[in-house]
Amino acid sequence: MSPKNRTLKAGLDHLLTNGNQKIVFGALKKLNIRPYQPDFEDFLQEARLTYARAYVRFPRNPESDLKEFRMFAYQAIYWRTLNSLKRQTMVKNWQTAELSTDVTNLPRQYRCSSREQQVLADDLFQRVYAICTPPEKRFLYYRYVKQLSGREIAQREGVSPQSISKRRRKVGQKALKIIAENADN
């Protein structure tokens, strides 16, 4: 079959034969995309479509040159998915940069009994926020500004609740360190 006569439907049909699904799952596994991740199904569907596109674009006959085609399809899936992951990372970094520029204008969701305590709380928040990693900054933003629960933050971030608990502990340790430094002065 010449490349001009091949269709995406034929590519998807080919995917379902001869154990070709292994190619899709292998590429996703190499990129550490696992079935328990919230966006796994999206990546899986995109990888299947990429396989079908590779079937259409392959310059020779995929049935007769099966080994070469499988390598071709694997690389196509790998690179396409890697680009998607990079795009997601760029968006997260952009959101983090946006958060860091807005930290001085955060609404006060935590209330203190006196003006002096409010100023001290704001100062502590700013100082802790300044030394946090990007995931910890997102945790602070979601927890203290948006007032989301740990489970809601985990869902939004696409991580486990244990990861959010770990971030909370690290942020708490950093806050305690700053408080201890102030007590020494």
UniProtKB/TrEMBL annotation:
GO annotation, biological process: DNA-templated transcription initiation
InterPro entries xrefs: RNA_pol_sigma-70_dom (IPR014284), RNA_pol_sigma_r3/r4-like (IPR013324)
Taxonomy, superkingdom: Bacteria
MF-aspect GO terms: DNA-binding transcription factor activity
NCBIfam families: sigma70-ECF
Protein name: Sigma-70 family RNA polymerase sigma factor
Species of provenance: Pediococcus acidilactici
